[in-house]
Specification:
This protein is an alpha/beta fold. It folds into four domains: about 50-240 and about 250-310, Rossmann fold; about 325-395, Sandwich (Immunoglobulin-like); about 405-590, Tetratricopeptide repeat domain (Serine Threonine Protein Phosphatase 5, Tetratricopeptide repeat, Alpha Horseshoe); about 610-710, Alpha Horseshoe (Serine Threonine Protein Phosphatase 5, Tetratricopeptide repeat). About 45% of the residues lie in helices and about 15% in strands. It has 23 helices and 21 strands. The protein has a five-stranded parallel beta sheet, with helices on both faces. A four-stranded mixed beta sheet has the order 1-2-11-12. The longest helix is centred in the C-terminal third of the chain and has 24 residues, at about 690-710. It is globular.
């Protein structure tokens, strides 16, 4: 491999020349562990040069993780930089960090509390909003907060910056984000008892420059709080990225992720502490680069009880000495093979390029390779030795041959499934189960059994069959999407998001996955992420009506009523089919209504009515927000033709009729308002709208009584 230094010409307006960033070769006083055999210098550094023209934590019995928030930024593609200054892997790095943070076997962050800015999303304005508005507004003193950045970092006129997607080299001060400001954000603006700052960019060490420790302490550290800062390199070193680490990562981030997955847990208590992660990352990055890159983590008096990740399955009875790590090298005979180590997916390997997995703790590990439609290789046990490469050759050879009787049952099941309605769904389920009884590895039969029971509103059986399909074929992405939809129906939004994250990582063109993500985020109240996912779904599958629906719902919640109305109308246009087809809705929409989450349904047709009713209710609310009361009344009345018992449509109509009474004085309007408020109370007497409806009714009754007394003195 060769190192490529990126050199750009700055505009003449720059008054000084930024220091050329060179590779530091200084050795630390401590003797490093022997480096595992691998290339000595990585492929590409993350150094943007600008020239003017010319100890282990003791085991604990209980683990309490506070409420957690994170911002994850990864920028590979820069809007205004030339081709040779683009990076390869920060976007993949950020996605990997996001995945491990939301994992229940990793960071355990709620998905809606982790915001991502990838490539074009990571503009200066968006970074400023997240750091200076969002995080300060949501965090509290007892929270855990993590910020991760991967991309270009550089120094100009003596000031260190991180480079947003839209950086302009002709106006750096106005288009880049100073690292000192990042430190101030963490130290002063953002609340939390555990604060974590992880940066994988060249000169990331400049966040805490060695030369001015007193200034560092003033600008970076809130002395009453705990700040753990781990950066990719010293302030005059470069950060490297290469395909030789996990198929393509920044070396530093690769080891951060492996550490959070549990490899850094050296004492076997299941917890990855700050000290453990720092030691694991520093040792492995230093060894991997022959001391050319040295992560820093010595800043701040962070709480030794800080929990960065927790995986209870890693708890061991004994305290183990810190291991010397080894490397798994996975080779295969087929492209697109997914590899699992100890039950966790570690990436895709192709026959032309081995998948290198450094930083693996020594000892026995289970390795399994899978490819849809073939018998898996493994799981089998492989021994990893300290400081050595362990090459594992996996062979995907045997295509699954289906038993003819099983295939016949499956085909009969599809015939019944396509007809729709309860009676046919039950017959379909029996056929799919018969196929599985004959061929227990018939993952497609398990998938459709799950879909059929979802159509029958049997959440338990639906989830069981979807999980069985994934267990048979872990790389069956269609099954994962359907499983996520069923999880949404069952109310497990977080696990649905995790499953969909796996799908989008493997298949960035899965419109179904992005649609379901938009729904999941909207139902969790994370409307920004819902909007982003819905836009992606619509771009991939413009005819997906429900993606427009959830985009509209999220835009309405963000008070963007005009934009929401356009999306509601688009949904209504796309879903304007014969309602008699409702019994086959799951089939005709390719499963897109999986995960709708409606529990009080007697037939599939009700979903069509419910969605169209909600869309009209949304339009009613949008018109209400714009003070267009007549059209708002029309939409709410239309909504009640689909869903007469809709609580919010009744409540909004009650208010609208009250408003119209205030203008016209018509007692009939007041009586109509009262009727709709009564409907709200009848539907859910404990709802907030019901409580407010009672107050409206008392006021209405008082007005009606007054009107009566005036007319009958």
């Amino acid at each position: 491999m060769t190192r490529r230094t990126i050199t750009l010409l700055a505009a003449c307006a720059l008054s000084t020349v930024a220091a050329l960033l060179t590779q530091a070769a200084a050795q630390q006083s401590a003797t490093p562990q022997p480096a595992p055999p691998q290339a000595t210098v990585p492929d590409q550094n993350r150094d943007l040069n600008i020239k003017k023209a010319g100890p282990a934590q003791p085991a604990t019995t209980t683990v309490q993780i506070p409420r957690s928030y994170a911002l994850v930024i990864g920028i590979s593609k820069y809007k205004n930089l030339p081709a040779d200054s683009q990076l390869q892997y920060p976007d993949m790095d950020a996605e990997s960090v996001y995945t491990v943070l939301i994992s229940p076997e990793g960071g355990q962050f709620p998905p809606e509390n982790v915001h991502k800015l990838i490539d074009s999303q990571a503009t200066l304005a968006n970074i400023q909003h997240e750091l200076e508005t969002w995080l300060p507004s949501v965090t509290h003193p007892d929270d855990r907060v993590l910020i991760y950045f991967a991309g270009h970092g550089f120094v100009s006129n003596g000031t260190a910056y991180i480079a947003p997607h839209d950086i302009d080299l002709k106006n750096i001060a106005a288009t880049a984000y100073p690292m000192e400001m990042l430190g101030k954000d963490m130290g002063a603006r953002i609340n939390g008892k555990w604060k974590v700052l992880i940066t994988d960019s060249c000169h990331s060490g400049a966040i805490t420059p060695e030369a001015d420790r007193s200034t560092v302490n003033r600008t970076l550290l809130d002395l009453d709080k705990s700040l753990f800062s781990i950066t990719a390199s010293r302030d005059r070193e470069q950060s490297f990225e290469s395909e030789k680490w996990g198929g393509g990562h920044g070396i530093f981030t690769y080891y951060v992720v492996k550490g959070l997955e549990g490899e850094a847990d050296t004492n076997g208590d299941g917890i990855v502490s700050a000290d453990e992660l720092a030691e694991y990352v520093h040792t492995n990055v230093r060894d991997a680069t022959n001391a050319a890159q040295n992560p820093t983590s010595e800043r701040g008096s962070f709480d030794p009880n800080m929990v960065l990740a927790y995986n209870p399955t890693h708890v061991t009875a004994a305290n183990l000495p810190p291991p010397k790590y080894g490397t798994l090298v996975i080779e295969t005979n087929m492209d697109g093979v997914e590899v699992f180590v100890d039950g966790q997916s570690v990436g895709i390997v192709n026959k032309a390029a081995a998948l290198r997995l450094p930083g693996i703790s020594p000892g026995a590990h289970t390795v399994q390779a899978v490819h849809l439609g073939y018998e898996p290789d493994g799981p089998r046990q492989e021994e990893v030795y300290p400081g050595q490469d362990t090459t594992v050759t996996v062979r995907i050879l045997i295509a699954r041959n289906r038993n003819h009787a099983a295939v016949d049952h499956f085909n009969h099941g599809i015939e019944f499934y396509n007809k729709g309605y309860e009676e046919n769904y039950r017959k379909a389920a029996a056929e799919f189960e018969a196929a599985l009884a004959i061929d227990p590895k018939y993952s497609q039969a398990a998938l459709y059994a799950g879909r059929t029971y979802n159509a029958l509103y049997d959440d338990k059986k639906s989830l069981e069959f979807f999980k069985e399909a994934i267990s048979i074929d872990p790389d069956y992405l269609e099954a994962r999407s359907s499983y996520a939809g069923a999880l949404l129906d069952a109310g497990d939004l977080d696990e649905a998001i995790r499953q969909l994250n796996v799908v989008t990582q493997r298949d960035a063109k899965s419109g179904m996955a992005y649609y379901l993500l938009s729904q999941a985020f909207a139902r969790k109240g994370d409307y920004d992420d819902a909007i982003q996912a819905a836009h992606q779904a619509i771009q991939l599958t413009p005819g997906n009506a429900e993606a427009h629906f959830w985009l509209a719902e999220s835009l309405r919640q963000k008070n963007q009523s005009s934009e929401a109305e356009a999306q509601y109308n688009q949904y209504l246009a796309l879903s304007n089919f014969d309602s008699g087809m409702g019994g086959k809705l799951n089939y005709y929409l390719g499963g897109y209504l999986l995960g709708y989450g409606v529990k009080k349904r007697a037939a599939q047709t009700d979903i069509w009515k419910e969605l169209r009713g909600q869309a009209n209710t949304g339009l009613c609310d949008c018109e209400w927000m714009q003070k267009k009361f007549d059209s708002a009344i029309h939409y709410c009345q239309t909504a009640l033709t689909f869903t007469p018992n809709d609580l919010f449509a009744n409540y909004r109509l009650g208010i609208l009729y009250s408003e119209q009474y205030n203008k016209s004085g018509s007692v009939a309007l007041l009586a109509a308002a009262r009727k709709h408020f009564e409907n709200v109370i009848e539907q859910n007497p404990d709802a907030n709208e019901a409580d407010r409806s009672r107050k409206y009714i008392r006021n209405i009754d008082a007005v009606l009584a007054q009107q009566s007394s005036l007319s009958h003195p």
